[in-house]
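== Folding task for one protein ==

=== Format: two labelled lines per protein ===

==== Paired sequence and structure tokens ====
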Amino acid sequence: MIDSSENRILAGAFQLFLEYSYEKVSTSLLEEKIGLTRGAIFYYAKNKNQLFRDVINKYVLEKQDVKNKMSSVNIERVTLFEFLNTYIDCAQKNINSMRSLVNDESKAYGAYFRLLYQAQLNYEGFSELITQKFEEERSLLDQVVKYAIERGEIKQELNPAEVARHIRYIFIGNSFEESLKVGFKIEEARSLILSYYNLIK
């Protein structure tokens, strides 16, 4: 169980790593942002790299874990339409939780993508871990699509793996493109995904 001090440290460090590159987040910046001494901060993480890894674990890898995101869904019974809406609702929930941690919402999503690149450079094994999360999510979506085909919810001639990839790429592509402009618009992503769903019904 993470105590309130550790949550405070991780939240403050997350804000700094979103705003600055890994290299520019100094101990003095951490002390100022979190409001604790370096001794208190590094009681929970032995050094900056460990703190960065803890931030990535909590705010990236846990958030991208499909078992966490879709824990309320019965895969064998849910329709593809219900799954897609639940998936987008979960994304909205994650976005809302991040909003409380950023000063400028319009820049938050671009900063989040930059954080992923920072993790590739400064978190050994991150690429493999995030790829595994993405593959687990794609595999789950693939299974939901298979059930949707079997039940006649969508066209019988569809390839489940291709449909799963299309849905993920629509969501990820839209979120990345919008992050470079004014921030991610979740309802726009929902509209695009459901438009695709209507095409394959």
